[in-house]
Amino acid sequence: MIYLDNSATTKPHPDVVSSYIKVSEQFYGNPSSIHAFGEKASSLFQKAKQQCGELSGLPDSSVIFTSGGTESNNLAIKGSAYALQGKGKHLITTVIEHPSVLEVFKELEKEGFEVTYLPVNKAGVISINDLKAALRIDTILVSIMYVNNEIGSIQPISDAGKIIREYSNARFHSDAVQAYGKLATDFKNVDLMTLSAHKFNGLKGSGLLAVRKGLTLNPEMTGGGQQEGLRSGTVNTAGAVALAKAMRLASEDQEQAYPTLRTCQQMLRAFFENRPEVKSVSSDHAAPHILSVTVPKLTGEVIVHALSHKDVYITTSSACSSKTNKKSHVLTACGFSDRDIRGAVRISLGADQRIEEIEEFIRIWQEVIPPLLKGV
């Protein structure tokens, strides 16, 4: 099998799985219990929380454990909007955010908030000047993803944070789900940051929201008051420990993984540039693990299914929308034609990707795809 759909999900690292099993079997007490067994679980949970905060790259932050990126994005955006609405109701985001961000902003618009959607260029990158022009005295929140999940475009997060701090009092949230373990994670100008474990060899159903200390949020889930009252419910000690382990491994392996990821991406880019049936979608400056291309004379679904018969796995777009048959809002915003969008596929690499796998993928593509074009 050649698995090239790592932006949808990655294979859990064996050490992460082992950590989860060990804690689940040996330290299953409720961390809210006052007996010694519960206190041991609480100690493990607090240690994992501290480690995740330190590894997040967001200085002076506290961590809220969640079920993943979608919940973290919802908590960051709605929690901030509701907490700050007395100071203003203007919000800013981009047109190419993940649905778990865009749909939240659409919901807030129905509740009376005003949203400015920043456009992007063909490479999928915003203009800092557009951001500066959009900031207002009543802007309370800006949300900009670090790496786009469909085309790998990298937003100027550091510069954006500086502009936001200089020209407004707004909070800055970044969905960094596709960035962790691949790019530098210095979020000194960010206030809230989203991560999801299964994007960097952790477990599904586990994520976090890193929040700069001192910020108030309205909780999405209320009840027993766990996690400082921001996410009630019995905490998942094993999940927190496993997430800390996944973050540590991804952080430690990032420097070693980056050159291989970039080499694999460059091999693919060089191959596709010489294929008459293919057009590039991702820019030359995309993140090292994502490459999107299009075969305008075919549909993405045809390409995906043809390759899967050879045990090669890629996807048409984001895994969150690939089964809905909706036209990609990301490629639309970047100015691609309907035909290009229809034929687009995404190849996403993992930290442990091998060059031999890319060589085999190239061989299989040449064997499988050109025959589909006959008579088209």
Write the topology of this structure.
Layout (H helix, E strand, L loop, with lengths): L1 E2 L10 H13 L9 H20 L5 E6 L2 H16 L5 E5 L4 H12 L3 E5 L9 H7 L4 E5 L13 H11 L3 E5 L16 E5 L10 E6 L24 H37 L5 E2 L9 E5 L5 H9 L3 E2 L15 H5 L4 H5 L1 E5 L6 H18 L4
Taking the alpha carbons of the first and last residues, their distance comes to: 29 Å
- The CATH homologous superfamily of the largest domain is termed Type I PLP-dependent aspartate aminotransferase-like (Major domain)
Beta-strand content bin? 5-15%
Determine the CATH topology of the largest domain.
Aspartate Aminotransferase, domain 2
CATH architecture type of the largest domain: 3-Layer(aba) Sandwich
Q: What's the tally of helices?
A: 11
Q: How many strand elements?
A: 12
Task: Give the low-confidence spans.
Answer: none
Element pattern in H and E = EHHEHEHEHEHEEEHEEHEHHEH
Shape: globular
Strand order of the largest sheet: 2-8-7-6-5-3-4
- The first-level CATH class name of the largest domain: Alpha Beta
